[in-house]
Design brief:
The complex is a heterotrimer. Chain A is of the alpha+beta class. Chain A is built from ten helices and 22 strands. Chain A folds into two domains: about 180 residues, FAD/NAD(P)-binding domain (3-Layer(bba) Sandwich); about 140 residues, D-Amino Acid Oxidase, Chain A, domain 2. In chain A, the strands form three sheets. In chain A, strands 5, 6, 7, 13, 14, 15, 16, 17, 18, 19 and 20 form an eleven-stranded mixed beta sheet that branches. In chain A, strands 1, 2, 9, 10, 11, 12, 21 and 22 form an eight-stranded mixed beta sheet that branches. Chain A has a three-stranded antiparallel beta sheet with strand order 3-8-4, with no helix packed on it. The N and C termini of chain A lie far apart (about 40 Å). Chain C has a single domain, classed as Ubiquitin-like (UB roll), CATH 3.10.20.740. In chain C, about 20% of the residues lie in helices and about 25% in strands. Chain C is built from two helices and six strands, in the order E-E-E-H-E-E-E-H. In chain C, strands 3-2-6-4-5 form a five-stranded mixed beta sheet, with helices on one face. In chain C, a hairpin with a 2-residue loop joins strand 4 and strand 5. The mean pLDDT of chain C is about 90. Classes of the chains: A alpha+beta, B alpha/beta, C alpha+beta. Chains in contact: A-B, A-C, B-C. Strand 19 of chain A pairs antiparallel with strand 23 of chain B, so a sheet runs across the interface. The structure holds flavin-adenine dinucleotide (2 copies) and FE2/S2 (inorganic) cluster (FES). The site of one flavin-adenine dinucleotide has 37 residues of chain B, from helix 1, strand 4, strand 7, helix 4 and helix 5.
Chain lengths: ~375, ~475, ~110
């Protein structure tokens, strides 16, 4: 069978890329070895965060953030997005000056989305924060969405524009023939003009088949969620210098993250939890929000995520093959970029250019570095 | 005291207690963890300290358990009661809550025997106050001497008749028995009659129970179908069909039952291999004759390993203990084979008998995978059949995808009350075998765990030396 | 009403159920103690707000969640009563959570 574009991986980036490509009129196929949203894109913390982004990512992240506000309408679906603001709490004066330095830099670059708040304002916005918290920084447009719902909303919108999704089908082999590609899977064989690697924690394998090397590593960030609690926190909560990260959803459940990692076995789609680290996250949450003492944990889990050495993703054209593109390595903050990355790739593919500077995200940026 | 044991056993029912006795006899260091205050499991619950004046009314099958419990209490075993296991690590680490604190044990060999739970009975109104399970009636009777007059007992399976008979012997009134065992059960079961005849005593016991209920004058509605609970905010009665006619019987309390299925969450969270057992219509760990699972140092025995009943559970427990001794290098291969043979033979005849029971009392599809779109499948998150169907139509074809989309299975029961329904529904909708559909991906903790308790985990306590309790 | 067939010589403890002090048999499950005093409502259904009560009495349905000594979401059927225990039915629902949330948002305007 013939396609204009074949995407390897049905996470949020594969699904969104399929949406933008099929909207642009390309006949698109997504190959997903498990089911759409099975991995990071369906099980992440749902954080839609612009606050604290690496400067290189700010332009993309800002664009994504403004799209999130109206994404449900755009996709005619339900992503579960809620604008709630995100506050990173400062524990001491050192944290306050870290915030100040960063905001000065951002202002210099023309950005005004991060705003410092003092202790009194912190108390007003988060009345349940421990009394020793001295202030913080807020980004108003931030919030959360429901990961599986958002990914599946992109998928269904893509299908409405004619994109095809094959679940339970694994890429096995790639050959570039002239400018085109022959794609073989465990089930069938296809021809396509353009190939896109959105393979998440497996993207280095797909990249290798495309001729590009990449120093991707993968890990299993862990999460836990409580049974419903009385409402006590509107904003999403983080911290400047502590592994504190949680959000209370509308339904009252509280999702606790904090970046602790379990053990990843990507060949078997398996992760194992590290309970000691989850215990530490529980301790931190309880220390900064004493109300959480009586919360009960309902479920814990982890997802397989791809990391790059500089914690920035790879986005853009391949370097060793023609009509090859990559978007992976989002290093535990790629969900928020869902509404923008696929569009950037679609622009590159259909017009050869994009208004964003993709240099920091080149796949060959580590080529001459000793890591 | 060291917190490393040759064998750690989870669950002090007939399976776990038998495993512990065998292992202790063979000279292993053994620890047994059970979440209840006293050993016994479901069948022998509180048998040595019954709240009832005359526990013998519960039947000889119950009182006979006292001997096992007493032997268990006297043996050289580390018994930990009120110890609720919430995590088992692949390496043999066992974490459990006791007095709101997490404690830890390490096992060279693990034998898991958390028993069974009743099969979900998703009919209209099953979530209303006043609707409970027949098993709950038994639990309340055995451990608290608490009963409810004027209830309806509805469903199928030998345990349903047992509890009704126990109630009647105690002078508790029963409004009606609504029996959903479909007509033709005998014909279906006939092919296994050979197995049943190997256990004639059991067959006769079953018939005697029915007779007892009949003689007491309790109305029995046979071959009932399409059950639904009546009532808006609480149960006021039960509606059902019989011979093409609709009946309704009033009662403010209804006990439902359609057999038991393995208590899956522990074995699933461990990542042990499971399969769909067509005969018992449930997910079951995949094991060898000694209960050995797909994880080398873990065995699963008793009803958690597939429903076989209490007597079979005793043999299974012994087998797993013998095998564990063999793996620990404390029992030669020849002795293992020799000491196992009687138990293996016994297991075989129980299996044959069970095939007969399973065929006779097979729960009907309408009470497992109901068609009515407003019936709740997921009690915790209140997801109806109709909402699940909508989720499926939006592309969620896997139980985990459906869970992520609809929240079905995300609540505190962690899928215990909807998991089987969801696996079967997705299979029917896609016209695939249930084995291709799979189940929820489960993780520890296996129950709600307070943030306060979890946060203390960094300075986790070793096991407490169990206080000497007398039987 | 549920009734008890417990032999008479049992010791008792006093506990507080929904504000009312009652005597219950030592060693009883909290669910039995509640039910014998007519307090069969455990929690509310979280989405619809309907009343719920214990279903399985053996720890697998989580319908019997109640607040024990200030800590919510405890399984009454697996809890043994203790002298002086304070027990409350739970009334949290998504609607009550949403109301609190709206109130907070309004306070910020
Ligand atoms: C626990 C956790 C919490 C997180 N929290 C946040 C957060 O709060 N905010 C945020 O912005 N980000 C967060 N992230 C990161 C975010 O989830 C990811 O960056 C993002 O989902 C990556 O999307 P993706 O499409 O690149 O990858 P994935 O979702 O992993 O999708 C890749 C897909 O490719 C498929 N695939 C791979 N190889 C093949 C092959 N050979 N053939 C066919 N298919 C293949 C895989 O099966 C997979 O489904 C979190 C991640 C995790 C794990
Ligand atoms: C409600 C109910 C009532 C029953 N009544 C009868 C009856 O009257 N007659 C009959 O023949 N059969 C009865 N059965 C069937 C019964 O399951 C078997 O006959 C028999 O009890 C199985 O023995 P077992 O050792 O496998 O499990 P069980 O007897 O169920 O023992 C399992 C033990 O594991 C413990 N446990 C479970 N999870 C954990 C955990 N996370 N941490 C620590 N401990 C844990 C439990 O407290 C329990 O003591 C009943 C089943 C149920 C569900
Ligand atoms: S009544 Fe089912 S868990 Fe307590």
């Amino acid at each position: 069978m013939n396609f204009d574009a074949i995407i390897i991986g049905g996470g949020i980036h594969g699904s969104a890329t399929a949406y933008y490509l099929s909207k642009a009129g390309m006949k698109t196929l997504v190959l997903e070895k498990d089911y759409v949203g099975r991995h990071a894109s369906g099980v992440n913390a749902g954080g839609v965060r612009l606050l604290g982004r690496d400067f290189a990512e700010v332009p993309l992240s800002k664009e994504a953030m403004s799209r999130w506000q109206t994404l449900d309408d755009e996709l005619e679906g339900d992503t579960g997005f809620r604008r709630r603001s995100l506050i990173n709490i400062a524990i001491d004066d050192a944290d306050m000056s870290t915030i100040k330095t960063r905001i000065t830099k951002l202002t210099g670059l023309g950005y005004d989305h991060e705003i410092q708040i003092d202790q009194q304002e912190l108390r007003e916005r988060l009345p349940h924060a421990a009394h020793n918290c001295v202030g913080g920084v807020v980004s108003e447009q931030d919030g959360y969405a429901i990961p599986y719902k958002a990914t599946s909303a992109f998928r269904r919108a893509a299908e409405r524009f004619g994109a095809t999704f094959h679940e339970g089908e694994t890429l096995a082999n790639l050959r570039q023939i002239g400018d085109a590609w022959q794609v073989r899977t465990d089930k069938a064989s296809y021809d396509t003009g353009t190939l896109i690697n959105c393979s998440g924690a497996w993207a280095d394998k797909t990249a290798m088949m495309m001729g590009d090397n990449t120093p991707l590593s993968y890990s299993a960030p862990m999460l836990m969620i409580t049974a419903r609690m009385p409402h006590f926190a509107g904003p999403v909560v983080g911290a400047i210098s502590r592994q504190l990260s949680f959000k209370q959803f509308e339904n009252g459940t509280v999702l606790i993250g904090g970046g602790a990692k379990g053990f990843a076995d990507r060949d078997n789609n398996r992760t194992t939890l590290d309970y000691k680290k989850l215990a530490l996250a529980a301790e931190t949450t309880k220390t900064f929000f004493p109300i959480m003492k009586t919360a009960v944990i309902n479920r814990m889990w982890a997802g397989l995520e791809a990391y790059m050495p500089d914690n920035l993703p790879v986005i853009g054209a391949g370097v060793n093959a023609r009509n090859a593109y990559h978007a992976f390595g989002f290093s535990a903050h790629g969900f928020q970029l869902g509404p923008v990355v696929g569009d950037v790739l679609a622009q590159l593919i259909t017009t050869g250019k994009t208004s964003f500077d993709l240099n920091p995200f080149r796949i060959d940026r580590f080529e001459r570095k000793v890591l | 005291m060291s917190d490393i044991f040759d064998i750690v056993i989870i669950g002090a029912g007939p399976a776990g207690m038998s495993a512990a006795l065998e292992a202790a006899q063979q000279g292993a260091s053994v620890a047994v963890l059970d979440r209840k205050a006293t050993p016994g499991g479901q069948i022998y619950r509180d048998v040595t300290q019954s709240p009832l004046l005359d526990p013998s009314v519960l039947g000889s099958e119950y009182t006979e358990g006292a001997e096992l419990v007493e032997a268990f209490m006297e043996a050289d075993i580390d018994r930990h009661q009120n110890a609720d296991v919430w995590h088992i690590g692949e390496t043999g680490e066992v974490l459990y809550s006791q007095d709101n604190q997490t404690r830890r044990l390490v096992a060279r060999e693990l034998i898991i025997s958390p028993g069974a739970m009743e099969r979900p009975f998703p009919i209209e109104g099953w979530h209303l106050p006043g609707v409970m399970t027949a098993g709950s009636a038994q639990v309340m009777l055995k451990s608290d001497g608490m009963v409810k007059d004027g209830a309806i007992f509805a469903g199928t399976g030998p345990l349903l008749y047992l509890i009704v008979a126990q109630y009647l012997r105690l002078g508790v009134t029963v409004n009606a028995v609504v029996d959903t065992t479909p007509a033709g059960g005998v014909v279906r079961a006939m092919q296994y009659i050979g197995g049943a005849l190997r256990k004639p005593a059991y067959l006769i016991k079953g018939l005697m129970l029915l007779n007892e209920i009949h003689r007491a004058g309790v109305p029995i509605f046979r071959h009932a179908s399409n059950l639904s609970v009546l009532g808006e905010s609480k149960s006021v009665g039960l509606q059902f069909e019989q011979d093409g006619r609709t009946h309704s019987v009033n009662a403010d309390h209804i006990f439902l039952h359609q057999g038991v299925i393995p208590n899956l969450n522990m074995t699933r969270a461990l990542g042990i291999e499971h399969h769909w057992a067509e005969q018992q219509l449930c997910w079951t760990p995949t094991l060898d004759d000694w209960g050995q699972s797909s994880i080398p140092h873990i065995a699963v025995v008793g009803d958690a390993a597939g429903i076989q009943g209490a007597e079979a559970a005793r043999h299974a427990g012994r087998l797993a203990a013998l095998k564990a001794m063999n793996k620990l290098g404390k029992l030669s291969e020849a002795s293992l084979q020799q000491q196992s043979s009687d138990h293996l033979r016994a297991m075989k005849s129980f299996k044959a008998f069970r095939s007969f029971l399973d065929a006779y009392y097979a729960p009907t599809p309408e009470h497992r995978i109901p068609a009515a779109s407003n019936t709740l499948a997921c009690r915790c998150e209140e997801q109806t059949m109709g909402q699940l169907r909508a989720g499926f139509e939006q592309g969620a074809k896997d139980p985990n995808a459906l869970k992520a989309l609809t929240r079905c299975g995300m609540g505190p029961c962690q899928g215990r009350q909807c998991g089987h329904t969801v696996s079967e529904l997705l299979a029917v909708w896609q016209n695939k075998p249930v084995s291709d559909i799979g189940y929820y991906r489960l993780r520890s903790p296996q129950r709600l765990l307070s943030v306060d308790e979890l946060s203390q985990f960094q300075n986790i306590k070793p096991a407490k030396k169990p206080a000497e309790v007398s039987a | 009403m549920f009734r008890s067939l417990r032999k008479p010589e049992t010791q008792s403890v006093s506990i507080n159920i929904n504000g009312q002090m009652v005597q219950v048999a030592e060693g009883s499950s909290l669910w039995a103690a509640m039910a014998l005093h007519g307090e069969t409502q455990t929690r509310l259904a979280l989405v619809s707000g309907q009343q719920r009560s214990a279903y399985c009495a053996m720890g697998v349905c989580f319908e019997c969640l109640v607040e024990v000594n200030g800590v919510p979401n405890q399984q009454a059927c697996l809890t043994t009563v203790e002298e002086g225990m304070h027990v409350c039915s739970q009334d949290l629902t998504e609607q009550s959570i949403a109301a609190l949330h709206q109130k907070e948002s309004a306070d910020h305007e």
